[in-house]
Specification:
The chain is built from 19 helices and no strands. It is mainly α. Among the domains are: about 135-250, no CATH class; about 320-415, Tetratricopeptide repeat domain (Serine Threonine Protein Phosphatase 5, Tetratricopeptide repeat). Keywords: Coiled coil.
Length: about 425
């Protein structure tokens, strides 16, 4: 037993130092002795990881791992097996298979929070690298749900999760308000039909939530360590333009984000790295106790009035909806440029403000100004000059225009203060 344990430790040490052949040799010695199954299993899993860099054997190793998934003894270890397979897929640049197997890992993981967080984190990283930030946001949310707060990567992951959550809020706001405005253009019959379809989707979502709660209760009964966490997995962003059939945004809660979060000032300074990004998880309004039926309809997602009240049918509501969209475009542009190094996406956000709301005096001037600075900093003088001319022509009295033709404008403002 001591010798087997000694071989296992030597295998791990060699694996850590990337001496894979030696590590494999020691793992084989452990497996040959056939000690307790947990050590055999870990030896097989670790051995498979040693083959990740060796494409000659990877197919054979993957077949052995898939064979392990059929073994009843590995029922509790399926999450780890699929995770290793997914890692192998990544090393072979097979991202589609990696996503499928990481997903299987999260689904098979019942009580192993550490493994669950690892699988979600890898999924988040895949979508982050693909610049699919909405999907990445959901996987980072799930990672933080299951990751131990003492984990060495926790703070770094948490920081990214908060950033992506804020970006997702703004992008979802744009999609939501756009969908609400589309509803406003429908006939009453079309509107009622669409709202009924939304309610059916909401009812389906609630049934799925109840089933998830039932499964959790069962798992808690079997193993109290699972706790009362809520698994947010399963609501992948569809990426569609229609808000209400997008499971990731069906909560319908972002319509009031301006009221909830407040409006940030349109700052002269293009960078805002000194600001802390904060995000607050919105409570599920359906769980609140209502004092009467009238108030209940405000938060009851199965009541048509809940949706009709949010449709911008009046001039005032439409203006408010447009302001929400404009602000969301602007804030998203800041995150894209200053935190994600996505200048192209930032330019698209700012250009959308100018194209869709050319007469807006609160955001168009700074949108022109920020575009001017971005083009200038990226050695695109012609584009920068176009933005400058548009700003001076359309908003000559704006402080952003004055910043361009009065170099001492900010200094004079400070002196007057």
């Amino acid at each position: 037993k001591k010798k087997t344990r000694y071989h296992f430790i030597l295998a791990q040490l060699n694996q850590q130092h990337q001496n894979y052949n030696k590590a494999i040799s020691y793992y084989d010695k452990v497996i040959k002795v056939n000690p307790k199954y947990e050590m055999v299993f870990n030896s097989k899993i670790n051995k498979a990881q040693c083959f990740q860099e060796n494409s000659e054997y990877s197919k054979k190793v993957e077949e052995e791992l898939l064979k392990m998934t059929k073994d009843e003894k590995n029922k509790e270890y399926l999450d780890q097996i699929y995770y290793v397979i997914a890692k192998m897929n990544l090393s072979q640049k097979d991202t589609v298979s990696a996503i499928n197997n990481f997903t299987l890992s999260t689904e098979k993981s019942k009580y192993n929070d550490d493994q669950k967080s690892k699988s979600f984190l890898d999924l988040g990283r895949i979508f982050y690298l693909k610049s699919n930030y909405l999907s990445a946001s959901e996987f980072y949310d799930s990672t933080i749900t299951f990751m131990d707060s003492n984990h060495k990567e926790y703070n770094q992951v948490k920081e990214k999760q908060v950033l992506l959550a804020e970006l997702a809020m703004y992008l979802n706001t744009i999609t939501l308000e756009d969908s609400l405005q589309r509803l406003a253009k429908m006939s009453e019959a079309e509107l009622n039909k669409t709202i009924n379809e939304i309610i059916i989707a909401e009812q389906k979502k609630e049934l799925e939530k109840q089933e998830l709660a039932r499964q959790k209760s069962q798992h808690m009964f079997e193993n109290n360590r699972y706790g009362e966490r809520e698994n947010n997995f399963g609501q992948k962003t569809s990426g569609g333009k229609w808000y209400f059939y997008n499971p990731a945004t069906l909560s319908f809660g972002h319509s009031e984000f301006i009221k909830k979060w407040g409006k940030r000032k349109n700052e002269d300074n293009w960078r805002r790295s000194d600001k802390k990004i904060s995000i607050e998880m919105e409570r599920d309004s359906t769980t609140l106790n209502q004092e009467n039926v009238e108030n209940e309809s405000i938060t009851n997602k199965k009541d048509p009035k809940y949706y009709k009240d949010r449709v911008p049918l009046t001039k005032e509501k439409l203006e408010e909806s447009n302001l929400n969209i404009i602000e969301a475009y602007f804030q998203a542009s800041l995150i894209y440029k200053d935190y994600l190094n996505e200048n192209k996406k930032a330019i698209n956000m700012l250009s959308s403000i100018i194209k869709k709301y050319p007469k807006n005096k609160s955001h168009c001037p700074i949108a022109h100004y920020n575009l001017y600075k971005m083009y200038f900093e990226n050695n695109k003088p012609k584009k920068a000059e176009e933005c400058k001319k548009m700003l001076l022509k359309n908003f000559p009295e704006s402080k952003y225009s004055k910043l361009l033709y009065q170099p001492d404008y900010l200094t004079n403002i400070e002196q007057k203060r």
